[in-house]
């Protein structure tokens, strides 16, 4: 059960082309967002679609795969863990970021 403590699985579409960063250490980082949609009927019986956006980062071989094959709009399934971090802006404001660190990705749909 310990593997279930911090596990995220999402299926969605890329909201933008991935940002690929090649670090001086030789590591590759991919940053992108995916949208997940959930549909339901409201009290009036009208169909409503709720879209949630998720920030995703991937490292190493997974990042290279993303760089080579994924673009805006592509449907993917990802698995990873949820992380939070903070940083200070140039103006001294503290900002908080929550993102999914992806360790597995599967391309869905037509590629």
From TrEMBL:
Organism of this sequence: Formosa algae
Record bears the keyword Cytoplasm: no
Which Pfam families does its entry note? SSB
DNA-binding in keyword set: yes
What is its quaternary makeup? Homotetramer.
Q: Which keywords describe this protein according to UniProt? A: DNA-binding
User: Could you tell me which PANTHER family the record lists for this protein?
Assistant: SINGLE-STRANDED DNA-BINDING PROTEIN, SINGLE-STRANDED DNA-BINDING PROTEIN, MITOCHONDRIAL
**Any one GO biological process:** DNA replication
Q: Which Gene3D superfamilies match?
A: Nucleic acid-binding proteins (2.40.50.140)
Q: Which Gene Ontology MF annotations are present?
A: single-stranded DNA binding
> Which cellular component terms (GO) are annotated to the entry?
nucleoid
Task: Provide the protein name.
Answer: Single-stranded DNA-binding protein
The record's listing under SUPFAM superfamilies reads:
Nucleic acid-binding proteins
Q: Which InterPro entries match?
A: NA-bd_OB-fold (IPR012340), Primosome_PriB/ssb (IPR000424), ssDNA-bd (IPR011344)
Domain of life of the native organism: Bacteria
């Amino acid at each position: 059960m310990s593997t279930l403590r911090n596990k995220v699985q999402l299926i969605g579409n890329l909201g933008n082309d991935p940002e690929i960063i090649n670090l001086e250490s030789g590591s590759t980082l991919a940053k992108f967002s995916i949208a997940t949609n959930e549909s339901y009927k409201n009290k009036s019986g009208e169909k409503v679609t709720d879209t949630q956006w998720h920030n995703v980062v991937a490292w190493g071989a997974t990042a290279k795969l993303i760089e080579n094959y994924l673009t805006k709009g592509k449907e993917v399934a990802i698995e990873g863990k949820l992380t939070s971090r903070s940083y200070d802006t140039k103006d001294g404001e503290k900002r908080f970021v929550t993102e999914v660190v992806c360790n597995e990705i599967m391309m869905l749909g037509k590629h």
